[in-house]
Every structure is written in structure tokens, then in C-alpha cells.
Amino acid sequence: MKSLFKHLALAALIGLSGPALASLAYVSNERDNTISVIDTQSMEVIDTLPVGARPRGILFSGDYSKLYICASDDDTVQVMDLATRTIIDTLPSGADPEQFALHPNDRHLYIANEDDDIVTVVDVKTKEVLAQIDVGIEPEGMAISPDGKWAVNTSETTSMLHWINTETFEIEKNSVVGQRPRHVEFTRDGKIAWASAEIGGTVHIFDVDTIEEIKLINFQIRGVPQDRVQPVGIQLTSDGKYAFVALGPSNHVAVVDAQTYEVLDYLLVGARVWQVALDQDEKFLYTTNGVSGDVSVIDVDQLKVIKSIKVGRFPWGVVIAPTS
Amino acid sequence: MSLLSRAAAATLFTLASAGPLQADALDVRIGYVQWIPDRGPVLSNIIPEPADSGLRGAELAIQDNSTTGRFLGQNFELSSDVSDSHDDALAAFEAMHSDGTRLFVVNAPASTLQAIMARASDDTLVFNAGAKDDALRTAECHVNLLHTAPSYAMLTDALGQWLNMRRWNNLFLITGPTDEDKAWADAFRRSANRFGLKIVQDKPWTFDADLRRSAINELPAFTQARNYDAVVVADVRGDFGEYVPFNTWLPRPVVGTQGMSPVTWHRAVEAWGAAQLQSRFENLAGRHMNSDDYAAWAAIRSVGTAVTQLKAAEPMELRNFLFTEQFQLAAFKGRSLSFRDWNGQLRQPIPLVHPNSLVAQAPFDGFLHPNTEMDTLGFDRPESTCRINR
User: Fold this and answer.
1) Contact assignment for A115 to B10 by CB distance below 8 Å
2) Of the residues A64, B149, B250, B286, which has the maximum number of CB atoms within 10 A of its CB?
């Protein structure tokens, strides 16, 4: 299989020399211990990379040269060099890292340690642990405000957002939200934060200046029992037009008007959709569908699902590099 | 880990800042009363049940509540008593009750639970985390009694749905001699009727031989019949049931209290974040989490979830909140759980497991219900005479 992938990779590289600009999507496969690499031009898997045990959260370094990977069952964060597609380093992460977020300073990595009820802050350059912050039970989602002031962690069983001051590494405020909060996403201007509550079935909209909830979004899909509608991943378009919310075992992604907070549509994707990512020019949205083991591609202009791509077992996270 | 030790000072510092945000702290005391009657000598006594089944689940839930509560100034405290007899359990309840405790989790037989309810003041809220008797959900309900343990009917309906789905319609039922065995078998007969299954043989277990020596001789003869798709065993305490698989007359699978079983919880459940609950429990108790642990955990987490949302702990206020749509228990079964307003039963999916793996989790697709598919398991509103929220 390895050599086959190499051929495909080579073919992809040749393809790169053409006029069309390709970029690459990376998908972590939780139960295969691999990362699938998808060419967004051909929408095909061009490489499958072995990584640590139970890879979940993934994100890029500021310059997109490296991929950070939460290898949850190895209790470490791996650093992959994307030019060579090899693991070049590991970071001390604390136990069972699940999700993380990189501060705009490109150095402070905030890691949610799901089993230990803490958030670990690591300097990716010096590999020094800067702080370990006690949060609620099963910390999961991590997000950092665009101005770098706030790191927000969601703790699933505690059902709170913990607002961490990134200068003091202290919690300044706790906001109770719906059951099992999973993900936080800031708007580009940093004024609004979106938070999903998986079991609550809701998305909570926060005003970041006051840290007060200003809106609650509910979802109802015809023919789907209400308790299967479980919001997880969120992506916002930079023009402020849309929010896309992955709705878990309802197998739908909600399209929300990011100004009025009205739900515009529900798009049917693969089974148990968890995370979503926009490509760099925001033409396509990629979703990871854990149970069906594939990635659905949504055309953002038409709001239509146009393709599903088979990846590894239980795809979890997805990120897309800029056009190269 | 030495890299992390550097952060110890920072951790201590942040701990202080994570303290109460509200000026007035809230103290919530919960009493846990357990009495499990001796099961008597059993034939298949190879793996004994842990004596602290239930208790350790309660302890974990108090930890979970407290971790959450420290951000809101809410303190949770458990008083627990593992009794040796019905009378001791009542005495333990009365002692806690006269100390002012008004929130209880009881893991005891139905008769003990009923005696406790008779002694409880009107402002006492009790969670049943042990007794599975259907009568507690169909006729003998109490306004202030909620059930986090599933009824026998919920368990056997889960099995009945699965048998229907697999089209294993013809069944050989073996029922043990105890009242629990008969209650389980009665529940299964009801489920068979609901899901179009046929019990082609319905035989009581009457042997008193030690099957470790003679299972291979006794059971094939006992399970002789012209044909059946599966053998269903009703042997709640685990007396003879472990010897039925692989010893049946026809080469057929065994389901029920042994073989593949419907359960409240099992170590093989790991989806929907359950892996985290399992590892938290194993760190605390040094063993796997079982069904009794889960029922006690769910009861105390229900209290904790309600206290977090309400920012109050008055038992009757909590009770009423537990029946509103705002209450949702996140309990690692892939759906939000809630209480049935007619009989106080926690509606929940039921895993079907064999000793080392999860086979499936009921309810299954295609078994429809106008409100929630979870109400296809157990006694739905029209099937119960209870109306505790009139």
C-alpha cells in the first residue's frame, strides 16, 4: 500500500505543476492512527500517514509548515513536518490531549487534557510547560480569540465555558451553557463567540466584550428525533454570512445566517458528523463523518453536498492548508 | 512528566482563582443507602460481584458534581451506608433523614425501598438505583420517587427489539426459581408479545445438581426441542445460566441474563465519550464500572446537573426541574436522558453486551415512537397507571 500511495503522491505533485491550484486537506482518523491527505482539486486521498495512537485534534503552525496532532492515547502532541510528511518532534502535552488551539503568537499551545480536568499551556518553541490550569470535567473544545486575549475551554461534563486570561493563565469567568459543550469558534473580528452544546442540542452565542450570552440557537430537522441533533464542530465564513454547524448523529450540517442567527438549511452528509473545515478561499466545506468513515464536501455557494471521500476509520478532525 | 513539574506553582496559583464566583456557597448533602441481600450459594460462582457495586458510582458522581460545583460555589457531600439487613438499611435512612438529609439514592430491593418511602417526609426526594421491579413503574409509584435503574421491562424490551430485528423469532425460555428470575421472565414474555416473538418452549429450571461436573450431560437433554432460534435464560443471580451457552441441544446462541445480555452499563461501552467515564471510574475504584454503579452515578449526576442549572438545591424545586424540558442528563449513552413524567423512570438506551464486547444498543431504527424512541423500552404512558405529575 505504501508504494501505491507514493505513486499517487507523485502523480499529485505532477498535477500541481498544471494551471489549477491545489491545496491539501488533512484528516485525523481516530481508530486507524493515521492522517489522510486529500488533494482538494481532485478531491481524492493522495496519501495516508501513520501517526500516534488515537489522533483527534489537529492544527497548523502559523506558517502552515507543520501540523500539530493530539495523539490522545500516547499522551503527547506530535509535530509533523508537512514538506516531508514525517513526525519530527513531540511536545509535552499532559495526559489524553483531545483538542488544542495555538495562540496568535505562534508559540503558546493550549491543550485540553480530557482525563485530567486541566488545560496545559506549552511553548512550542522551547517545549516548556508554561501552566496547567484546573478546569471542569472532560475539557474538550479550545479556542483563542483573534486578539489573543482569551483562551476559551469547554468542559463537557461540567457544561461550562472557562474564559482563561492568556497573560495570567487564570480563569476569569465561567459561563454555564447546555449539556456537553464541544467547540468554540470566534468571529474574525473577535466580537462574537459561538459555542456548541452536543447533548443540549444548542449553540450559544456570546458577546465577547461582556462575556454574556446574547442568543441561543436551536435546531430541528424534519424526520430526525430531537435527541439525535447534537451540535459539535462550527465554522464561520470570513464575510460574516454563514455559520456551518455539524450536528453529529443527525447526519446533517446546519447552515446558519451568521447575522440573524436563523437556521437557513440542513444538509445531509455522512453518519455522525463531528468536525468541519473551510478551504482557504471558502468555496468548499469539508466534514468528518465518524461512523461512515468518510468526508463530505459541501459547495458553499450552492449549499449542496457534492462529494463524499472515503478516508480511515472514525475520521475526527480536519484542517485545510492554503493553496500552494 | 518531569517537564510538567515546573508548572506545579502555576497550577496552585490558578486553583485559587478558580474559586467560587458567587458570594453565598451552596451545600448539597446526598444520602446513599445500600442493601443487597445475600444471593445464596450459586453454581457459577467463579467471578463474584463487587460488594461496593453502586457505592463507587455514587462516589464518582459526587466527585464529578464537586469539580463542576467549585466554579459556582456549590459543595456536594455524600453520606453513605452499606447495610447488612433490611432493618439496618431503614435505620441508616432514618438517621440520615433526622440529620436533615432530604436527597437520597437507594440501592436495595423493592420492599426496602417501599419501607423507606413510607418513612420519608413529603420534602424528601429518593432515587431508586437498584430495584428493577416493573410494579414500581406501573402501579406502586410515589410522587417523590425517581428511578435511574431501568425496569426489567426496559431490559427485556431491548432484547425483544433486537431479536425481532434479527428475525430470531422462535425462542426457548428457561426460568430460574427465584422471584427475580420469575419477574425477569414475566417481563420477557411481555416483550415477546410486543415484538412478535414466539416462545416455543417455556421451562422452569428445576435441577439442583452441580453443573460444573454435569452441565455437558444435563443441559443438552434439558434444551431438547424440535427447533428454536435462540435460548433465553432468566437467571438474575447467575446460578446456572453461565453453563447454558455451548451446552444447548441445538447449536444456537444464548441470550438473556447470560450470554448476550441487556444491561444498564458495561465496561465494553466506550462510545459517546464513555471511555472517559470508564477511565475516571477505574481510577477511583480500581475495577470496571457496572450497572449498579451507573444507576447510582446517574442519580447523583441528575441532582448535580439540576443544581448547576438552578443554582439552588431545595429538593422539591429540584424535583420539579427534573421533569422540565430544560433538564437533560448527559450520561454517555449517545442521547440526552430525561425522566418520564408519569412514573419517574429515567429513559435511557440499553446496551446489549457479551462479556467482552458491545453487540448493539437499543432502541433500534424502525421501532418508532411519537415522542422519543427511548419510550419504546419499558412502560409507556398508556401502559402505566402512574401519574406522579398530575
Assistant:
1) no
2) B149
